[in-house]
Design goal:
ABC transporter transmembrane region fold, 10 strands, 61% helix, 18 helices, Rossmann fold, alpha/beta, four-stranded antiparallel beta sheet, elongated
Length: 588
């Protein structure tokens, strides 16, 4: 209970801070909404008394016609003000949803390490938080309902207390079973939503893959569409069964709670009828109290329901605040030194690394890289090549040992200025549904002659085939032009070469490119004499031009030298190279 109140209080403060004017107006209107029903009842009571007595109301001097006009005005306001409230709530919801979304995006951007992004639990939480509309909207409406029904409950409680105080107590007690049922239902609903979210995530994957243009070819050839359709139908069936069971519980609970409340209201009705018959209560008062019975019971029940439904908001905002408080997976507490000097050397010193999954990737490796060197990093899959790239980019920190740049530990450098010195070309590159220019330059304002600066990477002839050249929108999701796998990869290579850098990290960059173009691209990469170039590849025929080759095996450095040296002195490298040599030999 304490944790729930604290979290909901933080959520209310957050929403109020983001939209103070709107929340003030919503609260004021909610108070008016809560008072209007009681005001209408009081005026109705006076109207009935005056009308039945056929005289002017003594205290105010109002006639029955005047009271009728006042009652009509109140009713007009009562039934029009919800439209104003809905408008205000929707405007506030849009603004708060935007603020929540940007807070989530901002947090993701601020996290410098990538361990969280490779963790399923983190991805589940992020996926849950991404649906801000389903949390902010209900939360705002719950606040509105809470203020409105609490105001109505207090005013009617005072009304009954001035007549027979025990009526308020009996009505309150009669609603307790419904309150308990509502609270239990809310908890079950929260668990239900979390369970269904996992199923919904699978369903979205199966559905989106079924409709994905990239999957059409294999779906038609291998009949994956039948498998995915079957899995999707199974999920829908499981979701339907789960929902029916939950709705059955709701139905049974509602019947029990409603029965108890009706018995209590009926008993009080009989009591008041007797008071009216003996003249203790006027007809107007009888009409007012009769209507108040149902409003009192309804207000109290709605308060219980609002509190119960706050459970969903509590779950969302507790995840939201925990997400914002999540610590980075790399140590940036010492990263304050701006990197303004040129990169002269990088040194790995007794570096070991183990992934959060407890898989050890590197074991006590040491090597150095110097400006002007073009170094290839080779080895079998799982040798630790890509892990070295991740450590250099500070996506992870070493478990043991240190990495130095110009004899300073890289942990000391401001991470933004440090990464400005690097660029990369990766196998698992992104295909952005943006323009060609925006795919190459993230700020969208690059040199349109970039193709000519790196000839052969993305031929000018291919660019001319696009409808709007560098301004052509790519990807079918937003209605753009789809490129081939090789064209996308060449665009990613151009992106890596175009970014200003002093260290170029190349990780298996030519998986979708034919051997002839691959050879040209590696020739371009290794022809660059400025800065440091570190190239990871398992295609050994392309790395003979590297000034040095570092050989990895099972996370350890087992060779370091030129191709001509290693082919003679390193049996492991010799075996790796010879196993691929036939791929690069011309055949008769």
């Amino acid at each position: 209970m304490k944790a729930k109140l604290k979290t909901l209080g933080r959520a209310l403060k957050y929403v109020w801070t983001k939209t103070p004017i709107e929340m003030f107006i919503v609260t004021a209107v909610s108070l008016i909404e809560g008072l209007l029903p009681v005001s209408a009842l009081v005026v109705l009571k006076k109207f009935v008394d005056v009308f039945t007595a056929n005289e002017t109301y003594a205290e105010t001097g109002l006639s029955s016609a005047s009271l009728a006009v006042v009652w009509i005005l109140i009713m007009i306001v009562q039934y029009t003000i919800p439209s104003i409230t809905t408008y205000l709530l929707e405007v506030t919801r849009e603004r708060c949803s935007k603020e929540l979304s940007m807070s989530i995006v901002g947090k993701c951007i601020s996290i410098q390490g990538i361990a969280h992004f490779e963790d399923k639990q983190f991805l589940d939480i992020n996926d849950w938080l991404s649906f801000t509309d389903r949390s902010v909207g209900p939360f705002l409406y719950q606040i509105n309902d809470g203020v409105k029904y609490c105001t109505g409950f207090i005013s009617i409680f005072a009304l009954f207390a001035s007549f027979e105080y025990w009526i308020s107590i009996v009505l309150t007690v009669s609603i307790v079973p419904s309150m308990i049922i509502a609270q239990k239902r809310s908890l079950e609903k929260s668990h239900q939503e979390e369970a269904l979210e996992a199923l919904s995530r699978k369903a979205r994957y199966y559905r989106n893959t079924l409709l994905s243009p990239a999957a059409v070819k294999e779906f038609k050839l291998f009949s994956f569409n039948k498998l995915f359709k079957h899995k999707l139908l199974e999920l829908f069936s499981d979701m339907e069964i789960s929902n029916v069971r939950f709705q059955r519980k709701i139905r049974n609970g509602d019947i029990l709670g409603t029965s108890i409340r009706i018995i209590a209201i009926g008993s009080i009705f009989i009591f008041m009828l007797g008071k009216t018959r003996d003249g203790t209560v006027t007809i107007g008062s009888f009409a007012m109290y009769l209507q108040s019975l149902f409003q009192f019971s309804n207000n109290l029940l709605m308060i219980a329901l609002v509190w119960a439904y706050f459970e969903g908001s509590y779950n969302y905002f507790s995840k939201f605040f925990n997400f914002l408080a999540m610590e980075d997976t790399i140590d940036i507490s010492r990263s304050r030194r701006m990197l303004v000097e040129c990169v002269e050397a990088i040194r790995f010193e007794n570096v070991s690394f183990t992934y959060p999954s407890e898989k050890q990737a590197l074991r006590n490796i040491s090597f150095s890289l110097k400006a002007g060197e073009r170094v290839a990093l080779v080895g079998e899959n799982g040798a630790g090549k890509s892990t070295i790239i991740k450590l250099l980019l500070r996506l992870y920190d070493p478990s043991e040992g240190s990495i130095y740049l110009n004899d300073n530990a890289i942990l000391e450098y401001d991470i933004a200025s440090y990464r400005c010195k690097f660029s990369g070309i990766f196998q698992d590159f992104m295909k952005y549904d943006l323009t060609v220019r925006e795919n190459i330059f993230s700020d969208g304002s690059g040199n349109d002659d970039i193709m000519n600066e790196f000839p052969g990477v993305f031929p000018e002839s291919e660019l001319e085939k696009l409808p709007d050249g560098m301004s052509s929108l790519l990807g079918t999701t937003l209605g753009g032009v789809e490129l081939s796998g090789g064209q996308w990869q060449r665009l990613a290579i151009l992106r890596g070469l175009a970014k200003p850098h002093e260290v170029l990290l190349v990780d298996e960059p030519t998986a979708s490119i034919d051997p002839i173009e691959e050879s040209r691209i590696f020739e371009l990469v290794f022809s660059r004499n400025e800065g440091i170039t570190l190239c990871v590849t398992h295609r050994l025929g392309s790395v003979k031009e590297a000034s040095r080759i570092i050989v990895l095996k099972d996370g350890e450095v087992v060779g370091d030298g030129s191709h001509n040296e290693l082919i003679v002195t390193n049996d492991y490298y010799n075996r790796l190279y010879m196993s691929q040599a036939s791929m690069y030999e011309s055949k008769p």
